[in-house]
Every structure is written in structure tokens, then in C-alpha cells.
Amino acid sequence: MAPQRILLNLALDLVLAALALPAALALAAPGIWPPPLWWVGGLSGALLAFAAAALPLRLPRQYWRYVGLPDLLPVAAASVVAAGLFWAGLMIAGGWRPPNPAFPLLHAGVLAALLGGARLVGRLQSAHRAGPASDVPAQPVLLAGGADAADLFIRALIAQRAPGYRVEGILAPRARQRGRRILGTPILGAVEDAGAVLDALRAEGRLPALLVLADPALSGAALEALLDAADRHGVPVRRAPRPTALDPAAARPQSTAQAAARRLELRPVSIEELLDRPQVPLDREGMARLIQGRRVLVTGAGGTIGSELARQIAALGPASLTLLDHGEFALYEIDLELSETHPGVVRRPVLADVRDEARLGRLMQEIRPDLVFHAAALKHVPMVENDPLEGLLTNALGTRVIADAARANGCRAMVFISTDKAVNPTSVMGASKRLAEMYCQALDMQARQGMSNGSGGMRCVTVRFGNVLGSTGSVVPLFRRQLERGGPLTVTHPDMRRYFMTVREAVGLVLQASVIGAEDRADQPPELKDGGIFVLDMGKPVKIVDLARRMIRLAGLQPDEEVEIRFTGLRPGEKLFEELFHGKEAPSPTEFPGLLVATPRTADAALVGRAIDEIAAAARGGQARLALAGLGRLVPEFEHAPNTPVAGRA
């Protein structure tokens, strides 16, 4: 605070302290007034007593226009101390003093009322001061959120010189709060009553221009129901800034210009928030026990899953973290991010291809990882259908190269990231991932059987799940780009459904599965002894056309009216419905929420390894038909989609 402002505040407080003395005397002894000469010493003593009490409590440094309860407590303390000092001075001086023994209390009360009242008036005047000229009236909004979040939002509006929004009512978390008020704004009902509340407001001609979500925790099914209610009335839904951005104490502007410029920026609701589910409880202690102090390698570290794995692993304190990817820029980005967020973690970015057996062998021998998380893969179905040999070499051979090199160099456990497209695959991508699953299962069974005779070996933990929201090449970023261009949004088929999960949730469950699969635990699923695969509970599948419509509405537009949805037909290798379990893989629950386990058919590791080598040799020689025939023998359920073009490949 500027020195001139501090001096001005002190001068105003001294004037109020001077006024408090005659007011307190009038209350203590009506009709009895001290002699005229008494006022010279009395006023001087009262001001000195106040200064002695106020300066140590830093009262002149307070911002009056942001005063709150924490600011009023020093005001009350200063008033009590000042009144006590003044009364003590009167007793010592021995001159005239008020006959009422309650005078010190009355003096303290009047002084506190004047000082506190002046500050509250200053805050109210600042809050309601006319703002810059604006032709746009404040928009009426309905607020959804708890009492604390609603209070912060409304206070943030009050603090603005020209607020762009006017809160007409609040939707609270619980129905019993209906009828109460927060800063004068009525609670009209519960969040689940949004439809009925909006019906009533429409009937009264008071339908809000926006529905604002003040609670950052509002997501998933509750958010979807709220959006549906708003959609029926054509009311857009927006997110309020996070509470830390709304708290006036967190960022007080230092000037009038800054206060005038500050505006509440509402943002659209993201599709990730809509499909997000409540966080399942995870064994964080087990994750720390698995990762902390160990050397960890993450392949595909620049991808969506690999980069999130790197973030969560870095937070658990590994001894070292090696980031491997064949994409230079993606690897650079995640390495730079971790250098800023976890500078204490020893990192090593490595540009390498998982198919390069010699290179990977040397690397593993050098770093000798305790844990390997293998996320590197070619995952885009149509792209792999266009170049199937590349998919076979990366997904099948690359997994074998990583697993063999890790096992040869004393790795404790390898975690393999698989996909729901490996179940009854109709694409080369899915079949190649199923082949990789088979090899990892066989190695894991071999290691578990070796435990019984004391030889042991590297554990291979396979985790299978569906689509990750927002991942590279997925449908959500595609729809966003198409929306930015004004449409149309392209959907392959009206009945296409997919499983979706946020990357944060998926990686958390991958780490949970790693703890269970890599450790000898009493609560370990018995299916793991037979090559069991962890499968993430993805919830219910989502129709892609419904996802497209929801994203259009979240953008404030109307599907089929303002933005077209165009059906383009299935692409090579695609199927309408993805599956998480094969017909012969009966899913079994585990003791851990969000994790299931399946026991697919398995084979001998040496047999699968030789078959992968044969397929890889055919792929390197450009013999597509021979390579795909070998893939079909190993994965008999693999049936190419009818529209998959294979002809013309030698």
C-alpha cells in the first residue's frame, strides 16, 4: 500500500476516534458534560491511546473496500485496548472522569462501531460504484453449487465495477436448503430439481440467460442430468472460475484500473467433465512402495497414456525415470514438462524405436530398469489397416523386444498397455495387440510357475481398456476441430458405440493393477496364475452420435440445425461395438473397485515367440499375405471387417 494511502487511513481513523469520545460520554452520562479545559487533554489522550493500540495491529494498512471478518477483528481489539488505555490515563491523572463505571465498555463499543462501520460503508460504496459505460446489461444467471462456492461467486460479482452477470437464484446440493438465502439471493431448489426450477422460471418469464456451475466437483451423471434440463429450455451452461480465482483475498487488485478491468471469465463445460466418473479409491501407499526408489522405463512416453504414466510415476519418487519414444517433439514436450513439475527426479529422454532389438538391448543393459511400462504402439485402426506390416512390427514384435530385453536384464515387472480392440479383433491393430497380449501372458505364467521351483522371473502385467478421452487421433479432438470450422461433424455409423475413460482415471487404475500384479499379495486374484489380464471397468458404452450432439450443445449450438452431423460409413477394420471380454473370458471381479480380471486362452511363450519372429520376418520382407496368414493362425478369432482392403498387397 502506498505511504500516502496509509497516512490517509490513519487520519480518517483518528477523526473517528475523536468523534467516539463525546459520543461515548453522552451515552455514559446523559446531561453531564466535562469542563471545557478537560477536552484539550481528553481528546489528546484519546488519540494517543488509539494510535498506541492501532499501529501495532496495522489498522492503517487495511483495504477498506475489501474489508471482511478477519479485518474487523483487529478493529475490535484496537478499540478495546484504546478504551482501556484512555481510562487508565484518566485514573492516573486524577481529574474529571465520567461517573458511570461502564464508560470504558461504552467507549470501546462506540469506537469499534465507528471504525468498523466506516470500513463497511467503504466496501459497499466500492462494490456499488458506477462502472465504465456499457451498452450491455447484466445477464440473469442461475447458479448451481454449494453455499461456499455460491458465496464466492456472488462476492466476486459484487466486487466488480460493471458486473456482466446478475444471479437470480441458486441450485443447492440438497433439497432442504430450499428457501434460504445467500447474500440476498434465494435458493430455489436442489441441483436435481433443475428441470422443475427452470419450468417455474419460464412460466414467470424469468428464464435465465445462463446456468453457471459454481461447484468444480459437479461432473459425471449429475452434470449430464443438469445439462439435459438446461437443453430442454435452450439455456447454455458455463463453468465458473475455480474458487481460488474467485477469492478476493487471493488476488486483490492494486489499483482502480485493475479493479475495473477484472472480469469473471466463464468457460464452456468440456466433454471430459461430462463423462468423468467419481474417483475410485486407489492404493496410493502400494503405488509408492512399487515405484519409490526404483529405476523406471516408460515406452511411448510422448503419447497420451505414456505421458500421463510419466507424470504420475514422477510424482511417486522413482530413483530414475527413462522416457522412450520415437517422436522427437513429443518426447521433448514431456521431458520439458517434468523438468518443471518434478525437477528433483532423475530423467533421461531416449529417442528409440521399440522394434530395434540391438538398440533396446544395449539400453536395457545400461539402465537396468526395475519396472517397465510399455505404452508404445500404433493405435489408429485405419492407419494400421493402410500399413498393416508396420502395425505388426511395432505392436507385436516391439512388445516382444521390450519384454525380452527387460527380462534379460533383471527387470522386476513389465506392464503392458493393451486395448479393447484386441477382443474378437476385426483390425490388424487389434489382432497385433492380442498377439502381444498372448506373449506377455505366457511370460507371466512362466514366471509364476518358476516361483514354485525357486527360479522366479519377470512378472508381465497386462492391462486392457477402451478409448481414452482426448487422446491423439481420437474422436473428441476430431469433433473439436470440426466444430471450430463450423461443421459438419462426421460419424461413421448411427449405431457405433465406444467405451470412454479419462486418461487420469485410466492411468491411476493401470498403476493399481501394477501393484497387484507385480507383488505377491494375499488378495491377488487367483486368475493371474493362469495368465489373467486386468480389464478396467469402463462403465457403459457411449453412442458416438450422442457424443457428437452433446459436444455441439456444449458449444452453445443446436445439432442438425446449426451444425450438421454427417454419417460417412465404417472405415477399414472398424466394428460397431467394441468388447472388453472374449466370449470364453469370463470376467471376474477383484477386491479393487474399477478393476476386473479375465483369463483368456494362453499358449507356450516359446511357441508364441517363434510365431512372432516368423510374422516379423514376413513383414520385413514385405509379404503382407504371409504375415496376415500367420497372424490369423495365432489369433483364430481375428476376422477382417468386410470393408478392409487387403488385396493388392504382396
UniProtKB/TrEMBL annotation:
Q: Which residues cross the membrane?
A: 38-60, 72-96
The record's section on CDD domains has: UDP_invert_4-6DH_SDR_e
| InterPro entries from the UniProt entry | NAD(P)-bd_dom_sf, Polysac_CapD-like, Polysaccharide_Synthase-Rel
Q: Which residues form a coiled coil?
A: none
Q: Which residues form the Polysaccharide biosynthesis protein CapD-like domain?
A: 296-598
Keywords, A to Z, come to: Membrane, Transmembrane, Transmembrane helix
- Give the family from UniProt: Belongs to the polysaccharide synthase family.
Protein name listed in UniProt: Polysaccharide biosynthesis protein
